[in-house]
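For this section, I looked closely at the sequence of one protein beside the tokens encoding its backbone, which the following lines show:
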Amino acid sequence: MQYRFSKQTIHIIAENRSGADKDRLRVTACRIFRSAWPVLMTAVLLGSGRLAAQMGFTVYPSEYQIKSRYIVNLVRYVDWPENAFQDTSSPYIIGLTGNDPYGIDLEKAIEGKTINNRHFIIRQFEENEVIGKCHILVVGSRERDFHRKVLLKIRSRSILSISDSPFFAEDGGMIHFVIRKKKIRFQINTAAVKQSGLKISTKILKMAEITG
């Protein structure tokens, strides 16, 4: 039996079948695409299907290389209010606070990267500093008390908060990186997203564990 992974091709083949065969083939096609969807979206978020070659990594990307790619490419699926930017070419500002495990990995992820005609810059905020202008805030500390204080500082602001700190989404953070079966996944607190005025594409919501 020959398998063809084009939905259009399967549809054409189905039209040349009759009755129950046609229905079974269409059901099979739908199941294939539903099961493949999370894999396809993960490839998009990581920037490539051939990760090692196109992302400039060695054979196996590190945990924070992968998370850095997620942070940058998630921007494609988030809408900020119009007043979040000075003009149509203003950059995306990624703020960092707390411990910074990303280091050069995040710098490499944004190097030469442009999304929606905007490039990226990184801004570091000290632990006791007021969180200034930024569109994404990566909270690096794994201490729960620290990220709670940070989330209070940015509550109701249009800032996409991201962390791998335990209980981050539960405490009001928007995107929480978690490990599931040795793979990086993420939780999304939809209530926190709504409160901030941001909008996240349903394509990403389908991939996430929803909280809030």
